[in-house]
Amino acid sequence: MTRDRAIVLGAGVSGLTTAVAMALAGCRVAIYAAEGPAQTTSSLAAAIWHPFYQAPDLVYLARARHTYATMCRLASDAASGVIMKPLTEYFRRDAGEPWWAECAANLERVQDPGMSPRFACAYRMDVPVADTGTYLRYLMNMFLELGGTYVHRCVDDPAPLLDEADVVVNCCGYGSRRFGDDALSLSRAIVLRAARDDTVSGCHIDDSDPALPTYIVERVDDIVLGGTADPDLTSTVIAEPQIRDILHRCNGLCEGACALRVIDARIGFRPIRDKPRVARDDKHARLFHNYGHGGGGFTLSWGCAHDVLRLTGIESAGTGLE
Ligand SMILES: Cc1cc2nc3c(=O)[nH]c(=O)nc-3n(C[C@H](O)[C@H](O)[C@H](O)COP(=O)(O)OP(=O)(O)OC[C@H]3O[C@@H](n4cnc5c(N)ncnc54)[C@H](O)[C@@H]3O)c2cc1C
């Protein structure tokens, strides 16, 4: 039997997940990427499973559910950098359970008399959280162990690569704009990384204001505090008041956040599109796309990789990962 030859462009969470899923399905896969995992937008993410800034959407729900199940499985392997954490999400309007409630385990309404009066209700649930450095390395190692190859290469146009492979999958995130997608834009995000501390535990989110998402994500090695959502801003300068504002907002979710020792402040750029493009190319039948996941690249990763497999017609090996 000849195995399909596939080229996956990009080594962020979308590219690595897609490449692993295709390798598990028996393809001979090469990743071509301009930057390695540690230099990607993915490496800067808080990497909590959560449908950030997302209106109810059935396709999103199916992909998020698939990812949730897969990441729960990965959490049982300590080497993956994925752990299950309690998340408390705060809502300013009481509209009952969140629309994606069915995905998350142990969801319950929180009865917290100490909760700030600006919140109408809160829900607690268990969600997967990834330590990005460890998780992206883990995916890359899994990919290489499955016989995949990694090539450091910037691609100007994916179409000519169809001469080298049966299938090409573009997972270039915002880099896909170079291939002609003007519907893709950026949303700048400022996040802080703080040292772990007993006073702050678990994860806390209030994303009711799309311009000022506030979150605390406790991971294996650090605590990520966020954030901002600044459409089209590209400056990479972080001012002291912006750091103080994030700490102040986080302290409103979990007292003690203000006193955390901040290790660094970082800027990342979410690749925004009205919907992620997970589709066959309009002109080239063997070229596929998987990019534009906005603030949900981790949340959607395994579900989107699964959809890529389905679109290419490559049969899943049924390992439970892809
Ligand atoms: C601060 C921050 C916090 C976030 N927190 C979360 C969160 O908690 N949960 C969540 O689900 N999501 C979160 N996100 C969103 C998530 O990080 C992104 O949706 C995701 O990282 C996008 O991944 P990607 O693999 O598609 O793109 P990227 O990570 O940008 O990777 C793109 C890859 O393509 C390569 N590439 C680009 N152009 C070319 C080219 N021409 N040729 C070859 N290679 C190319 C790059 O080198 C790179 O390897 C966050 C984002 C930010 C910025």
Automatic annotation (TrEMBL):
Ranges of residues in domain FAD dependent oxidoreductase: 6-308
Class of this enzyme: oxidoreductase
TM stretches of this protein: none
Keyword Cytoplasm: no
Protein EC: 1.4.3.3
Cofactor(s) recorded in Swiss-Prot or TrEMBL: FAD
Catalyzed reactions per annotation: a D-alpha-amino acid + O2 + H2O = a 2-oxocarboxylate + H2O2 + NH4(+)
Alphabetical list of Pfam families matching this protein: DAO (PF01266)
Top-level taxon of origin: Bacteria
Transmembrane helix is among the record's keywords: no
Keywords: FAD, Flavoprotein, Oxidoreductase
Family of this protein: Belongs to the DAMOX/DASOX family.
Name the record gives this protein: D-amino-acid oxidase
Species this chain originates from: Pandoraea vervacti
